[in-house]
Amino acid sequence: MSNSDMKLVVVGAAGRMGQALIRVIHETEGVKLHAAVGREGSAFIGKDAGELAGVGPLGVPVTTDPLQAFLDAEGVLDFTTPATSVAFAGLAAQARIVHVIGTTGCSVTDEEKFQAAARHARVVKSGNMSLGVNLLGVLAGQAAKALPAAGWDIEIVEMHHKHKVDAPSGTALLLGEAAAKGRGIDLAGQSVRVRDGHTGPRPAGTIGFATLRGGSVVGDHSVILAGEGELVTLSHSARDRSIFARGAVTAALWARDKKPGFYSMLDVLGLS
After folding, report:
1. Of the listed 32, 34, 113, 160, which one is catalytic?
2. Which residue of the set 164, 181, 236, 259 is catalytic?
3. Of 63, 94, 100, 143, which sits most exposed with the smallest number of CB within 10 A?
4. Is 164 an active-site residue?
5. Cα R_g (the chain), whole angstroms
6. Could you give the dihedral angle defined by the CA atoms of residues 177, 181, 184 and 185, in that order, rounded to the nearest 10 degrees?
7. pTM of whole model > 0.70?
8. Is 269 exposed, middle or buried (0-12, 13-18, 19+ CB in 10 A)?
9. pLDDT tens track for 78-117
């Protein structure tokens, strides 16, 4: 570990993603765990973050004080909740550091606040931090553009573990946005999220979403383009949370020397 290692703070440190982030930071060259933040009242406050994540003691106790944690830090990795991420974005802007946001289920107002924070912070935000999913988004956009809306319907199917609280997933929406952009349409006005009862025939040109929940599935996504007599399916299966953690650490290192601004994983991967 050298002095030039990028000093990263993990927020939501006691959660499944927080622990995955701590493990990936521990095994990645060029970064080190600077601080770990948990929520008030968590049983893990004061415990060693490394022991919590199963990598042995790192001498970094989990704290509830983000202000203290952000002091001297260079970046924050954040897969928490929309309200918490907005609060952290304000702190990251004040500290003028990198803020990598993998939080999903954010409102339009939340997104505006992230954009405002990006005037001073280097914000990298994505509905999914994995390399494979971001490539899938690019391919979905190309396919949607290539196959005419008149004869091809687009459906996005996703499945996640039973503990996930938002639907459709941030990744499904990322894929929907990519397909809508390929078609030159507005996703908000052209998406079908629920089908129940006598729905009538499928409206042409819309993008449909189906949400499945169960078991311990980390994340499965498919973009289905259905034509007359043929079906094109683009899919991605996440087998392990560490792919999102690795993506987040890659994003932090990429943003380290960038100007303040709002970036996505497509920028990080050179796919934008």
Report:
1. 160
2. 164
3. 94
4. yes
5. 20
6. 10
7. yes
8. middle
9. 999 999 999 999 999 999 999 999 998 899 999 999 999 9
